[in-house]
Write a structure and sequence with these properties.
This protein is α+β, with helices and mostly antiparallel strands and about 120 residues long. It has one domain. The protein has two helices and six strands; from the N terminus they run ββαββββα. The longest helix is centred in the last third of the chain and has 16 residues. The protein is elongated and about 45 Å long.
Length: about 120
């Protein structure tokens, strides 16, 4: 991987890394976690997680994708836990706004109805 393809965040902006060692050390500090919020809706618990990838996940050089917000149900066993909704962003500001919007969508059950007795008929 070309070193220019690995990034850290400095001042909220993606900055290319000089080396793989620098990139790994930065990721180990978990500074790539933008926000994580537990959201309880009825008896169900959701985790809204927004992270900085550390790489540009876009195939379009003009539209970078560095951030992602995902919604998980942490009470689901790990082998079955996968994101039930994701959204990707180019900037930290978009990601922070998207995180808050995703929390609202979870609270309004716009994402995915939890499996409860009422909807298992």
């Amino acid at each position: 991987m070309d070193p220019a393809l690995r990034y850290t965040l400095k001042g909220g902006k993606p900055v290319p890394c000089e080396s793989l060692q620098e990139w790994n050390a930065w990721l180990e500090t978990r500074q790539n976690v933008v926000a994580q919020t537990d959201v309880r809706v009825g008896f169900d618990m959701f985790l809204v997680s927004t992270v900085f990838y550390g790489v540009n996940m876009s195939f379009d050089a003009d539209k970078p994708i560095f951030f992602e917000t995902s919604v998980f149900m942490p009470e689901v066993p790990a082998y079955a836990a996968s994101a039930i909704e994701t959204k990707k962003y180019a900037t930290l500001e978009e990601a922070q706004k998207g995180h808050e919007e995703m929390i609202g969508r979870v609270q309004r059950l716009e994402i995915w109805p939890p499996q409860t007795i009422d909807n298992l008929e």
